Amino acid sequence: MASLNKVFLIGNLTRDPELRYTPGGTAVANLGIAVNRKFKDSSGELKEEVCFLTVTVWDKQAEGCCQYLTKGRPVFVEGVLQSRFWETPDGQKRSAIDVRAERVQFLGHGAKDAAKEPGAGDAPEAEQPPGGEAIKPEDITWDENN
User: Fold this and answer.
1) Gap between the Cα atoms of 75 and 68, Å rounded
2) Closest CA to 104 of 81, 75, 80, 127
3) Domain limits of the chain?
4) What are the pLDDT digits (tens) for 2-29?
5) Residue pLDDT, tens place only, 40-56
6) What is the pTM of this model?
7) Residue 91 buriedness (CB in 10 A; 0-12 / 13-18 / 19+)
8) Strand 18-21 with 7-13, pairing
9) Rounded distance, CA 122 to CA 124, Å?
10) Which of 15, 56, 114, 137 is the Cys-Cys partner for 120 at CB 3.0 to 4.6 Å?
11) pLDDT tens-digit profile of 74-121?
């Protein structure tokens, strides 16, 4: 039987990314994102539903997300679903399904940023990383295999 585990999401960050490192020194970041879905119910009334997800990002991609992304910023995430299982200190079993990012693409400004920046909706000024050439945050995308 064939199987496929692939997700494509566009949503807004619900909090600033959280960066940490594994004991082996690998960067890992968690992104909280909200993805909205609009639909009509059986009576024809327009409804909106929000799905809150945790996205795990690894390596250089995690560091880049933490450097450039903030709460409210829209992102495109390509990845796979991943199950987690753990036991609480009082012995209760818990589980969650998260998204493991293979690629994160930064989209335009978040609503909060756009309201306070001149030229909202325009591409942000290029940032100059230490010892590197100028880059724009929305131009950064990573492939997990790089």
Assistant:
1) 11
2) 75
3) 8-38+48-117+134-139
4) 999 999 999 999 999 999 999 999 999 9
5) 999 999 999 999 999 99
6) 0.69
7) exposed
8) unpaired
9) 6
10) 114
11) 999 999 999 999 999 999 999 999 999 999 999 876 555 544 444 434
Which two tokens mark 92? 């209760």
Domain 8-38+48-117+134-139 maps to which CATH number in 3.40.50.720, 3.30.70.330, 3.30.310.50, 2.40.50.140? 2.40.50.140
Query: CA nearest 67: which of 146, 145, 130, 131?
Result: 130
List Cα–Cα distances, 30 to 27, 113, 130, in angstroms. 10, 21, 25
**CA gap 111, 136 in Å, rounded:** 19
Place of tokens 């903030």: 70
Length of the chain: 146
